TrEMBL record:
Residues 4-334 form the Anoctamin transmembrane domain. Keywords: Membrane, Transmembrane, Transmembrane helix. It is a multi-pass membrane protein. This is Anoctamin. The chain crosses the membrane at residues 41-65, 72-95, 142-164, 192-216, 291-316. GO terms for molecular function: chloride channel activity. GO terms for cellular component: plasma membrane.
Length: 366
């Protein structure tokens, strides 16, 4: 259901993005492309990752004892989506070009023409490039980057699948641009435009999401709290092998499944994963103190984790700037020399004008 919904809504979102972008009336073509690309990314990001967020957070906690199912679901979504994208990029143009060649061959047989079309005519009969250029190519890579980084804690195989897909994608794109598509019109670009900001935003979302995945859906925090607060090693020093004894029984609460039969009550109990008071306590099924300790530890872990990662990122960005210092110095020197040349040219021109008019002139700026 999810996999069929993703490609079907792609066309709808594309038309909506066109409409909204044209309603904005951007001043330049680059502004139009940036606005359209941002809208397409937001639509496709929600379209692709809404089900993945559900699997990673809600379905993942429901299938706590079957973590393999969670990886299978996310792997199927990633693999089948890449297969569909590759088919639409290469398989669909192949079929269209085959049909075009077939019609041209039939027309030539009817006209009894055995002359072979020149190369430029054959190139013209290839499929035209999309009207919005490389937006689809950027969008595919950015969505893959988001899927790989945002859910890497819930689906560790995502980077490997992305690497294999990119190895195949390089060759498929090369074959597509050379043999199946018309040559695109060249256009100058100073950078990748809005996509740089999109990648920065994905990085921030990835750090926060992985912090929540580790803190909420994994057993790391409950184990940590049990070992230091409720386990057998409290006030005795932490030793991992012995301090987690009894953790499983401690993490399971009791639920009364008894029923009344023949005038007598038959008691039956089941265990479930939670931190709630037993049915025989004064406040049955209320959250215990351990639940609030675990919740506080999870929130603290999220804050510490994202601050630590962002701090390391900022430190690395400061240590490794986007542009080396010597290159910045050379660029500033070139700018200074350019200003000096303009200054000298203006001064020389003004001196010639004054000399022509018979006025006095100096070697200084008037």
């Amino acid at each position: 259901m999810v996999l069929s919904q993703i490609p079907l809504t792609h066309q709808v979102y594309e038309k909506v993005a066109y409409l909204l972008t044209n309603l904005e009336h951007p001043r330049t073509e680059s502004e139009w492309e940036n606005s359209f690309a941002l809208k397409m990314f937001l639509f496709q990001f929600v379209n692709l990752n809404s089900s993945t967020f559900y699997i990673a957070f809600f379905l993942g906690s429901a299938l706590l004892f079957h973590k393999g199912n969670q990886n299978i679901y996310m792997g199927v979504i990633m693999v089948l989506k890449q297969i569909w994208n590759n088919f639409m990029e290469l398989g669909y143009p192949l079929l269209q070009n085959w049909w075009s060649r077939r019609k041209m061959k039939r027309a030539g047989e009817q006209n009894n023409s055995k002359e072979q079309l020149p190369q430029w005519d054959r190139d013209w009969n290839l499929q035209p490039m999309n009207a919005h250029g490389l937006v689809d190519e950027y969008l595919e890579m950015v969505l893959q980057f988001g899927f790989t980084t945002i859910f890497v804690a819930a689906f560790p195989l995502a980077p490997l699948l992305a690497l294999l897909n990119n190895i195949i994608e390089i060759r498929l794109d090369a074959y597509k641009f050379v043999t199946q598509w018309r040559r695109p019109m060249p256009a100058r670009a100073t950078d990748i435009g809005i996509w740089h900001g999109v990648l920065e935003g994905i990085g921030v979302v990835a750090v926060i999401t992985n912090a929540f995945v580790i803190a909420i859906t994994s057993d790391y925090i409950p184990r940590f709290v049990y070992a230091f607060k409720y386990g057998p090693c409290v006030d005795k020093g932490y030793r991992h092998e012995k301090c987690l004894r009894g953790y499983l029984n401690n993490s399971l609460s009791v639920f009364d499944m008894g029923e009344l039969k023949n005038g007598s009550y038959h008691t039956r109990y089941c265990r479930y994963r939670d931190y709630r008071a037993p049915p025989w306590s004064p406040e049955p099924y209320e959250f215990t103190l351990q639940f609030w300790h675990v919740l506080a530890a999870r929130l603290a872990f999220i804050i510490v984790f994202e601050h630590l990662v962002f701090g390391i990122k900022t430190f690395i960005a400061h240590m490794i700037p986007d542009m080396p210092k010597d290159l910045c110095d050379r660029m500033r020197r070139e700018k200074y020399l350019m200003q000096e040349m303009v200054y000298e040219a203006e001064l020389e021109h003004l001196q010639k004008e004054r000399k022509k008019n018979g006025k006095r002139y100096h070697h200084e700026w008037p």
